[in-house]
Amino acid sequence: MFNEKKILIITVNALDENTNNGKTFSSFFKNYPKSKIKQLYFHRDNPNTTVCDNFYRISDEDILLNVFSIKNNFGKETVNQEFGNSIINPRVTSKIRKSYFFKLLRSIMFLRLNLISGKVFKWIYEFQPDVIFFCGGDANFLYKKVIKLARKLKIPIINYVTDDYTRITFTFNIFYLINRIWTRLEFINISKKPFVKNFTIGPQMTNFYLKYYNIASKPLMNLMDISKYDPIQTISFTKMVYIGRFHSNRSQILKDLAFTISNNKLNFTIDIYSNYKLDKELTKIKNEYPFISFRGSIPGFKVIDTLKNFDILLHFEAFDKKSINVTYLSISTKIPEYFLAGRPILAIGPSQISSIKYLKENNAAIIVTNLNDLTNKLNQFSDTKYIYEITNNQYVTLKKHHDILRESISFYKFIESIFYE
Questions:
Q1: Quick one: 368 exposed, middle or buried, by C-beta within 10 A (0-12, 13-18, 19+)?
Q2: What CATH number is attached to the domain comprising 339?
Q3: Collapsing DSSP states into helix, strand and coil, what is residue 315?
Q4: Is there a single domain that holds both residue 306 and residue 384?
Q5: N or C: where does the chain have the smaller number of CB atoms within 10 Å of the terminal CB?
Q6: Which string of DSSP letters, residue by residue, matches 311-338?
Q7: How many CB atoms lie within 10 A of CB 305?
């Protein structure tokens, strides 16, 4: 009998099904008993998930308020959708998260954190977890803390990777280099422990880590309830939609697409759902192209139904070197949602990006890897037979890699099979 082990989820951010990582993590445990899951996290955000009811939060404020304390009583238990007061303005927090100097300062502050004593360890020990599901991201201070905890409890770790922080881009920003090198060393260290089993967001990341670091891992991507698949019925493809943020220079791709549509007088509209603030560039694009509409943000549970109101689903990856480095090994969590919606995808981005590679290998999108081809690719949406072939490939890929029933059972069996070495 599987799904009997107790799982302690340790991540930087809370489980929140409105965020990309939170949505992915939650999909892994949708069919797991709630009573056997707890989460420990390290940011001042709020849980919003259906897979867990018991949380422990240690935020920046907790560290700051106890900076001179000799007691290890950081953080507190919290519940789903609990909102607290912050001593740090959210705008300041946002700027801090983008600054490598403050990231480094935060990591140094968190070094005094101890997970094997005080209130937090009492909370963990009372639960008696059998396994740790860990995603550390760029929280370099956290890796050794989790290793010590696993050794104390004599339990294995499932180390999950969504974004790569091992590849280093040359820069004169010394704080970036220190952060990245520190994170890289910590990641390699934890990944090679005998009691650690590694999973990644996709096959390209798995292959990369094996080739360059000799780290074995298995791919595990965002999972979907494929019984909710809704194949498209239309023969006219004109209504485009983009759901997501515009970080990593993705607004430039929107601008290029809008220019091509306008310059060729093509009959397309673009609706955008995003919690991303309209900056000067996006405002200029909105004002210049009347066929673009910004609709604000939508909660995670409405994404699939919203996608089904449109004919073409947009996926953007920028072509500049900095953006490529950020997204090179990651597969977007939106792609399985796009598959489930049953609408054709227009994916624009460099051929070496994992998301673009994944779609190309499965022939599951109209793909633009050279902006000079954009007009020709847009004209392919008039070929109904080809579009239906694309959406059929999307469904095949959805069943093969993202079926929540089959993949979660396989994952739970794996959890039952691992032990502390």
A1: buried
A2: 3.40.50.2000
A3: strand
A4: yes
A5: N
A6: SEEEEE---SHHHHHHHTT---THHHHH
A7: 12
The angle at the Cα of 275, spanning 269 to 278, to the nearest 5 degrees, equals 70
Q: Which residue's entry shows tokens 């949380």?
A: 55
Tokens of 343: 């609408």
Same domain for 408 and 380?
no
Do 287 and 215 fall into the same domain?
no
* Residue 207 structure tokens: 């292959």
Query: Under 8 Å CB-to-CB from 321, ≥6 apart: which residues?
Result: 169
1 falls within a domain: no
Structure tokens at 174: 């010394």
**Residue 2 included in any domain:** no
Using left for φ > 0, alpha for ψ between -120 and 50, and beta otherwise, residue 278 falls in: beta
Q: Which residue has the tokens 């494929």?
A: 226
Print the domain residue range for 352. 226-401
Residues 278-323 have pLDDT tens digits of 888 899 999 999 999 999 989 888 999 999 999 999 999 999 988 8
The tokens for 404 are: 């929540």
All residues at 6 or more sequence positions from 103 whose CB lies less than 8 Å from its CB, including other chains: 96, 97, 138, 175, 179
Distinct helix (H) and strand (E) counts, the chain:
17, 14
Query: Cα separation of 291 and 288, whole Å?
Result: 9
Helix (H) or strand (E) holding 105: helix 100-110
Q: Is 15 inside a domain boundary?
A: yes
116 domain-assigned: yes
Bridge pairing between strands 7-11 and 131-135:
parallel
pLDDT tens sequence across 143-160: 999 999 999 999 999 999
Number of domains in the chain: 2
